[in-house]
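Q&A FORM
Asked by: J.P.
Topic: structure of Carboxypeptidase

PROVIDED:
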Amino acid sequence: MRIIISAPDFRDGEADATRGLPDQPLFQSQHPSDVSNINLDLFKDQYYRDLVARRLSGAVQIPTVIADGIGEVGKDPRWGIFHSFTQYLRKTFPILHDRLSLEVINQHALLYTWQGSNPKLKPLLFMAHSDVVSAPESTLERWTYPPFSGHYDGEYIWGRGSEDDKSNLIAILSAIDALIHCDFTPTRTVLVSIGFDEEGGLDQSNGARYLAERILETYGEDGIELIFDEGIAGIEEHFGTEFALPATAEKGYLDVQITIDTTGGHSSTPPDHTCIGYLAQAINAIEASPFTSRLTNKNPTTVYLKIAALHSKNMPLSLRKAILDPSSSNEVLNYMDSSLERRALVRTSTAVDIMRGGEQFLANALPETAYAVVNHRIAVEDSIQVLKDYYIRILSPLTKKWGFSLIAFGNDINNSCDSVGTVTLAGHYELEPSPVSNHRDVRFTWLADTLQAVFGKDVCVAPVLLTGKFMFRPSEDPAAY
Ligand SMILES: [Zn+2]
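REPLIED BY: S.T.
REPLY: Here is the structure written out as tokens.
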């Protein structure tokens, strides 16, 4: 789960991100009301579990894949499958569709409104998406059960979207449906927003963008109390202890394209380096200067580690001590750096993913242009600008040495009329790291309370950072839940 709280973000240098954390169970639940008790019993009931599993299975069986090169929504018939999906939801949750209002936006984006009794309170917003990535023909034999079988083996549901993200979608609607059956009416309005093209591949969003515009139009800037979106699914076991891990921040994103242009010529009389050789040197310089790992109070990973050290059952003693001892930060960083997954949580990552240059089957001619694309997931302490400055710092001395011009992100850095080549840097898909939601905010406690009431008080709740593209955020008014 990813949760967005619109509230002041953490500031760099804040004394201690874990200050004020109570002992685990971190957040004491209130006595559950009658409705909660009925629902908690329901969730343990095998019949109900099977019912929700069948709902998810049915959703997985509808292949809501966005085809390659698909045209405009409403014109390309391949979008038609999403009508079937909306119909499926109407058929599966008839009472919910009776009670909640549903606005269909841009043909397939769904915005449900469950009106709260107190219109002065800002709504809660739950988000999910109905599309899934494709399952290419060539991979079909590697599937244990076909990707759109929705096979339910009594424990798992198999197929595309069974986790990402139809599980969220069906869980949200099932929870509301269960509450309606208890005659529950929320005090605060609840919105459910379902996009249909989250998995990408399109130039711009046809779903979430329209939903966001509509929500903004209705509720205004900062008009939502809390946003819940997809993130880490389910309960995970870490150090012999069950953890629920709502993400309170997400790394940023940037692709940097490095293009090197040189004059061509014949391969029989080559210079020492072609543009491909120069590009290799540039890549080598970037890989030789990785971003450093650090654990600051801005990064939710710091809080997660502290909670794990204080409350997990089987953390090795040396690690536990290192995390709890402020003078042992290097040991903690060594631990984080010792796995690729953990390392990605404490630094801006660098991955040289694409390289092209020269003409195929034309080894006689010197290549005139070559480029590489380097993907970065940006740490919460860094920014797009930090990355751009980094590239200039690394590549400026090289281009001077080569006698090349450097055009970095639209600016001439080294430019002389007698340069013999050009290095051009361009940024694509720029996305700053998300703001960091405050785990000490009372609204994080609402969520933690709920998690512990459902999954038990032995479950540790800790905020985490998402390294992919997926987070918890409150607004200003921490009024009644
Ligand atoms: Zn997803």
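FOLLOW-UP: Residues 129, 164-165, 198, 230 surround zinc ion (CB under 6 Å).
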